[in-house]
Amino acid sequence: MECQAAFEKLKRLFAEEPVLKHPDMDAAFVVQADASDVAVGAMLLQANGQVSFSGPTFQGFLLEARNADRLDDPPIGSFALADRRQSQLLRCGHVKNSAVSHTSKSKKNHMDAYWIAPSDAPKKVQFLLTIVQKYIIYWVKIPGPKISQAGILPFTTIMFTNWTIPASLPVSSLSQPGGGDDAYFCISEVYSVNMRTAALVGRSYPDFNSKNALENITWRLADGLIQCAFRRKIHLPASTGRYNLDANYYIFLADGEISTEGEIYKHQQQPLITNGKYNILGPLKDIGGSRSPFLIKMHGALMFVGWITAVSIGVIVARFFKSVWPHTLLFGEEIWFQIHRSLMMITVLLTSISFVLPFIYRGGWNKQAGFHSYFGSTVMALALFQPLMAAFRPPQQAP
């Protein structure tokens, strides 16, 4: 009785929509065949759309269709295979054939499938794609385009790119001189990643926005690396505190640690900052950057020239060339002494200039610089003390 009831139900379902409908003679037909030791069967069907994705070489994938307005809901619709050798159908949730995955870890760079919309499909559908390049490199839920059931696209392409950010807590920010920063936080939360936006003013703690303006957020967390990707509108209301993207900005990237409670700690090193302003909407290119501003670079360069070059040469001349030029004079003084004194004065001058540059950059004393500030002040004091001692030193003929 149970078998007969199941058979009658199957016949009834085959005679109802959406299984039974007139074919679209302008659309492509799909033939699915199967065979066993006792029977051979085939099915002629039409899928609502072909889904294709391609990109760099990958080993595994998982393709699903979701409600574009509620991506956390279960998958919708079903798929038909385009290549049974490299893809297979999976049941996700309670929907049969609601996902497509790989059959082996062989390398591939393109895959096709046919998606069949359900009778109760939502107004907008979005495909989500998970890609595995290798065991420790993968991308989770890459968002595809949103499609409408009223005008479904016959070909839907999902592209993915390899973007790896070597950081434990990446913070990407758009900055303008004299104003705040528009920051985007990629925060690791054990087995997931949280993407948040915030406004940065000076060196205060980030003011996270209660309303997230980001869409199509995807992330990857593997082997100590975090990848975050998102989309947002080019123009947002001024009340959101977000910058419009059709302008030029400095871009900087910082990374740091977080506490077990999720509190963000100060980044451990100077952020990576672009050397100039760039248009976010411009073509992709390697913009470069540096973790040290120009004034800080000059500070280090001048200290290096002064103490590694000038001082070293001055000491060597005073130690080894005094006997080589015993009676050679320059402006009334022995030449070795003139060279030694000139190099020492150059060192004092370079040290003084270098000492002032961090104050100009920071706008005053930096309490967060640690022992470096105190060490530099001590070096500056000793550098000034040396010519004072030389000025009061008696001449050689003095008793």
Tell me about this structure.
Pfam families: Reeler, RT_RNaseH_2. GO terms for molecular function: oxidoreductase activity, acting on metal ions. This protein folds into 3 domains: 1-18 and 38-148, Reeler domain (Immunoglobulin-like), CATH 2.60.40; 180-290, no CATH class; 294-392. The protein has 399 residues and is of the alpha+beta class. The protein has helices at 2-14, 294-320, 335-362, 371-391; strands spanning 30-35, 40-45, 49-58, 60-67, 78-81, 87-92, 95-102, 108-116, 124-134, 137-148, 155-159, 171-175, 181-189, 192-200, 207-208, 215-222, 225-231, 248-254, 272-273, 278-279, 329-330, 333-334. The protein is elongated and about 125 Å long. Strand 9 and strand 10 form a beta hairpin. The model is unreliable at 150-169 (pLDDT under 50).
